[in-house]
Write a structure and sequence with these properties.
- By secondary structure, this protein is an alpha/beta fold.
- It has helices spanning 30-45, 68-71, 76-94, 111-118, 145-164, 170-175, 188-200, 204-217, 222-236, 240-250, and strands at 6-11, 14-19, 51-56, 61-63, 100-104, 107-109, 121-125, 129-131, 168-169, 181-183.
- 48% of the residues lie in helices and 16% in strands.
- The strands form two sheets. It has a six-stranded mixed beta sheet, with helices on both faces.
- 38% of the residues are buried.
- The structure holds coenzyme A.
- Coenzyme A is lined by residues 24-25, 27, 64-69, 107, 109-111, 133-134, 137.
């Protein structure tokens, strides 16, 4: 499928998905969200893809939120369906079973911050700004922001950002645990590519096990999470990659994970 609002590029086993509406600061309209659903389905089902980078076009923004022009005319019923469509995309990314890195320059606001929070790792330029400004529109976050920010940074940060709508800079976002790496803008791609390459060269079944155990465990009692961990740990022993990883260590060489 050809995309109108996305650019796709593969570099080795890393797929980069770039949201390309620079004149609208990459705001998420329904069409873009639908395209992202398709792009992430394709990334999931393509065994050659072992890590995904999600980016926004241009210098100014990762994503400046849901498309306010489109939002402004919705009925309550249409808004419910729009929220569900966005939430389903965020859940799809979170549960992709492959690591997804958000590459964040400039603004990550509203739906842009929600999108970044659904990724597994967030690498930001020190010029990036984050926020949930929906309150300024008489709205609340609708793509999972109240829930993911709560889980990522705690109740204090979730209430502060959502109630005030005030943006925070990258340093504060790192303090709150919202971003994992903050780098100078000129180093953003080097940092993101190095991280993506490392993940793409790792054993994919083990990566999937970690994603599963952490994500499901975060929503369950510890015994349930520990059970997930045991199952995922045991499954690694059915892979060639686990044999290769342990053998390579004993033979004092670098492992080559084939993804089997
Ligand atoms: N939805 C639709 N269009 C958006 C948008 C959004 N969320 N965010 C930015 N745009 C559009 C602007 O309307 C403008 O389009 P135009 O040139 O056709 O008028 C273009 O992107 C550039 O934005 P502009 O506001 O002129 O840039 P700025 O540098 O002055 O301000 C922001 C940047 C991010 C502070 C500002 O655009 C903003 O506050 N955006 C909305 C953020 C928001 O509330 N997001 C949550 C939505 S639920």
């Amino acid at each position: 499928m050809a995309f109108r609002n996305l650019l796709l590029a593969d570099r080795g086993a890393v797929r980069r998905i770039t949201i390309h509406r620079p004149d609208k600061l990459n705001a998420l309209d329904r069409e873009t969200i639908n395209e992202l659903h398709v792009a992430f389905d394709q990334a999931r089902h393509d065994d050659a893809v072992r890590a995904v980078v999600l980016a926004g076009s241009g210098e100014k923004a990762f994503v400046a939120g849901a498309d306010i022009g489109e939002l402004s005319g919705l009925t309550a019923q249409q808004a419910q369906s729009f929220s569900r469509l966005g939430q389903a995309l965020m859940s799809k990314i979170e549960r992709l079973g492959k690591p997804v890195i958000a590459r964040i320059q400039g603004f990550a606001l509203g739906g842009g911050m929600e999108l970044a929070m659904s990724c597994h790792l967030r690498v930001a330029s020190d010029k990036a700004r984050f926020g949930q400004p929906e309150i300024n529109l008489g709205l609340i976050p609708g793509f999972g922001g109240t829930q993911r920010l709560l889980r990522l940074a705690g109740r204090g940060a979730a209430l502060e950002l959502c109630l005030t709508g005030r943006p925070i800079d990258a340093a504060r976002a790192r303090e709150l645990g919202i971003v994992t790496h903050v780098v100078a803008p000129e180093n953003l791609d080097t940092e993101v590519d190095a991280l993506a390459d490392q993940l793409a060269a790792s054993a994919p079944h083990a990566l999937a096990g970690i994603l599963d155990a952490v994500l499901h465990g975060g929503e369950s009692a510890i015994d349930v999470g520990l059970d997930y961990e045991t199952q995922a740990f045991a499954l690694c022993f059915a892979t060639e990659d686990m044999r290769e990883g342990t053998r390579a260590f004993l033979e004092r060489r670098k492992p080559a994970f084939a993804g089997r």
